[in-house]
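From the methods appendix. Each design record in this collection lists the tokenized structure first, followed by the designed amino acid sequence. Records were kept in a plain field format so they could be parsed without special tools. The example shown here is representative of the layout used throughout.

RECORD:
FOLD TOKENS (314 positions):
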């Protein structure tokens, strides 16, 4: 209620006249969203009190706008930071997905990635580095293990870093692309009236980086929020690889599982931090699924070093 009243007060200061205004949602970050109706048109009001992510959202939106479906930015307000952006409607993947349309929705999302990767779109944004991957993975040791009262020696973290850096050498062999970095069902919308890959609408891409082409496919098919059919994951991988016959399949599959391991460790750490630090306990419900996904990837023969190091801690 306090935030709601604050936003209404700021709208008044900025002389924004509206006929209706309601809180829509928040996410794992500090961003908050409101539906606002102005001159009989529904728009989304995004509030972000973090300067960096606010500026990044604007920058990445402008970079992507002719390539994939991202919200049109209608108005930018600063101090405090508000955006009036296009409202995609109640068409979020997480609200729409069911057995009968699952394949259609996911292949639309993959087509959107394929189009961007085909364009070889590499804007001037930071790259994923070995250090970035390691720093993210460390969240598992810093938050998940303490939350579960699991003790570990610092030598395990050092050994993990060595194995990760060595394994990432192979991932450097596959193409680098623009990475959304949080490409999952809560950040995708099905815009059925649009054509081809533009049917998939994107949000929440302000943390985008340049990195391995498997990354967003892993995010989509090994999602913490939903049980994803393994058969469909295989079909999506085959579909993607047929579009890019220059990619070595063995390197791609190795990198897919490696990034899955790294991402699941990161997610376990983030969800634990959201609970312990930010008092957001709803993310805890996803932890058993993430643990299962992590274990499935670790059990592959190529990752036995990771497995022997981590299995007792999960």
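DESIGN:
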């Amino acid at each position: 209620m306090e935030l709601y009243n604050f936003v209404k007060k700021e709208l008044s200061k900025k002389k924004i006249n509206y006929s209706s205004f309601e809180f829509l949602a928040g996410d794992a970050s500090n961003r908050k969203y409101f539906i606002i109706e102005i001159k009989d048109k529904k728009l989304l009001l995004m509030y972000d009190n973090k300067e960096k992510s606010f500026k990044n959202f604007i920058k990445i939106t402008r970079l992507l706008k002719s390539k994939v479906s991202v919200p049109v930015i209608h108005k930018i307000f600063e101090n405090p930071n508000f955006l009036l952006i296009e409202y995609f409607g109640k068409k979020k993947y997480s609200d729409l997905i069911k057995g009968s349309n699952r394949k259609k929705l996911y292949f639309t999302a993959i087509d959107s990635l394929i189009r961007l990767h085909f364009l070889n779109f590499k804007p001037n944004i930071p790259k994923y580095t070995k250090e970035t991957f390691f720093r993210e993975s460390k969240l598992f040791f810093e938050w998940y293990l303490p939350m579960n009262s699991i003790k570990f020696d610092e030598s395990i973290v050092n050994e993990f870093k060595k194995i990760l850096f060595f394994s990432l050498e192979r991932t450097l062999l596959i193409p680098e692309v623009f990475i959304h970095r949080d490409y999952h069902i809560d950040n995708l919308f099905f815009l059925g009236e649009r054509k081809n890959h533009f049917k998939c609408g994107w949000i929440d891409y302000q943390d985008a980086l340049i990195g391995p082409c498997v990354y967003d496919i892993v995010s989509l098919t090994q999602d913490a929020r939903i049980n994803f059919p393994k058969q469909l994951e295989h079909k999506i991988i085959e579909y993607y690889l047929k579009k890019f016959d220059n990619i070595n399949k063995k390197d791609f599959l190795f990198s897919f599982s490696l990034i899955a391991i790294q991402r699941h460790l990161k997610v376990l750490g983030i969800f634990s931090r959201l609970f312990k630090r930010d008092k957001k306990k709803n993310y805890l419900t996803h932890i058993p699924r993430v643990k299962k996904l992590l274990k499935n990837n670790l059990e592959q023969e190529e990752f036995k070093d990771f497995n022997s190091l981590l299995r007792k801690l999960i």
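APPENDIX NOTE: The chain has two domains: 2-86, 93-310.
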